[in-house]
Description:
By secondary structure, the protein is an alpha+beta fold. It has helices at residues 5-10, 56-72; strands spanning 18-21, 25-29, 37-43, 79-81, 97-101. The chain has a five-stranded antiparallel beta sheet, with helices on one face. Strand 1 (18-21) and strand 2 (25-29) form a beta hairpin. The chain is globular. The protein binds adenosine monophosphate (AMP) and zinc ion. Zinc ion binds next to helix 1.
Amino acid sequence: MDNCIFCKIANKEIPGNIVYENEDIIAFNDINPQAPVHILVIPKKHIESLNELADKNLAGELLDSVREICKKLNIKDYRTVINTGKEAGQEVFHIHLHILSGRPLKWPPG
Ligand code: AMP
Ligand code: ZN
């Protein structure tokens, strides 16, 4: 989609620090990391948020890719986050799953 920064990264129109890629999914380092490991996992297809993710196959692929990324990068303990909607902290309206790791993470997050 035009003007979507994550579509541009997926299409390689702007550089991303890509850590994983398959036909439907791409993962790259967050530009403003909140932990020593902070990866964003996105479908290449533009889908605004979890509320629009109606494709079960793609939803499964998103989680499968998390497992593969963590295995590949030897990430053992980690937190996954999907912010949905402005009030929940979503700033980029192309669905993305955060993987955070490399430091103790409090719960509840606040
Ligand atoms: P969210 O608040 O859940 O929408 O998360 C958006 C995330 O995207 C934030 O953690 C940003 O630091 C990150 N971000 C924004 N622009 C870029 C970019 N060009 N490359 C990598 N990460 C980005
Ligand atoms: Zn997009």
